[in-house]
Amino acid sequence: MTLEGTNTYLYGSDPCVVVDPGSEDPGHLEAIRAAAAERGGIGTVLLTHSHGDHSAGAERLGAEVVLPGDGEEHGGLRALATPGHAADHVCFLGAGGVCLSGDLVLGLGSTIVPPGGGSLAAFMGSLRLLQAQEIELMAPGHGPWITDPAAKLAEYVEHREMRERRLLDALEGGERSRAALLQSAWDDVPIELLPMAAMAMEAHLEKLEEEDRLPIELAE
Ligand SMILES: [Zn+2]
Q1: Is the C or the N end of the chain the one with fewer CB within 10 Å?
Q2: What percent of the chain has pLDDT over 70?
């Protein structure tokens, strides 16, 4: 319901559930209340994950706030644990093959997978889990709806696999410093996005390390 911000979804009726209410902006919360009133009020507020841009306004809507565990069902939406972007991230599956994908898959740009806790391996597992579901329409936490979810999921998997390949190529070519690896495997990234790329690379290095595929200790 905000243009550049987080997408808020209302699902079902009598009462409806609100997914990711987003910011605490009073106008935004009032718009949610008004839309929900036409659907018989708010039964539950659901969160895809605990990041503030999805959850900040949640407690102000006067309904129970739930970040469900895997398999829990609320108001006709079934939660699917999909860690990676955040450890507590879930997607919601609804009727007719609708998937509310939170920040796992975005309508625009690329999802951030911060390093730590095996996040990238978990992220890849989450994408594959979604690939195994019958999804017709994906409604992401940011950006427009995704009308070809299979293509988008494949693109996400391939993009990460491409980076991993290029990183392994650079390692095999003898690069051992983080700066050189970044320059080699992320050479298409504009300079202002290099800090993000460096973070993405850390998640890749962590994954390779866990999988025993990192040849040696790297220099800073
Ligand atoms: Zn997030």
Answers
A1: C
A2: 97
The predicted structure's pLDDT at residue 3: 44
Question: How far apart are the CA of 122 and the centre of ligand 1, in A?
Answer: 15
CB 77 within 8 A of CB 92: yes
pLDDT digits (tens, 9 = 90+) for 75-96: 999 999 999 999 999 999 999 9
Q: Determine contact, residues 202/179, Cβ cutoff 8 Å.
A: no
Look up tokens 């409604």; give the residue: 139
- The pair of structure tokens assigned to 134 is 């019958």
Prediction pTM value: 0.93
Residue-wise DSSP of the chain = --SSS---EEESSSSEEEE------HHHHHHHHHHHHTTT-EEEEE-SS--HHHHTTGGGGSSEEE-PPTT-EETTEEEEE--SSSTT-EEEE-GGGEEEEETTS-SSS-----SSTTHHHHHHHHHHHHHTS--SEEEESSSS-BS-HHHHHHHHHHHHHHHHHHHHHHHHTT--BHHHHHHHHTTTS-GGGHHHHHHHHHHHHHHHHHTT---SPPB-
From ligand 1's centre to the CA of 89, what distance in Å? Answer: 8
Rounded to an integer, what distance in angstroms lies between the CA atom of residue 135 and that of residue 126? Answer: 14
128 Cα–ligand 1 center, Å: 19
Q: Measured in angstroms, how far is the CA atom of residue 170 from the centroid of ligand 1?
A: 30
Residue 138 alpha carbon to ligand 1 centre in Å: 16
